[in-house]
Specification:
119 residues, mainly alpha, single chain, 7 helices
Length: 119
Amino acid sequence: MTQVTIPVADTILNSLNMNTVEIAFSMRKEFALKNFHEGKLTLAQAAAFCGMNVYDFISIASQAGIPIIDYTIEEVDQELAQLNGKTSGKSPLEGIMGIKVNITTQELVEIIREGRAGE
């Protein structure tokens, strides 16, 4: 594993009122959020980079306004078809999160609009 060292002036540490562990975590979190949002890191990679599980990373990404699933309507249709077993191959969501559903695109849109996505 590679380590990166970043010098930080004591005056900055004092101004931030944070210790080095807190600063390191904050930097890792912001880096992971940025690179996940830009598509450079997967959800699992970003979570691991922060030293947290995927569900906790989903929570901080949601708080930061970063979408976890950023699909076009066509991609949602394809994903739902895979999840519903209408196409061959394992769905990425099923592989990552163990999700198995039987819903339509319209039902998914309604769930998201009603704020029931976390249920």
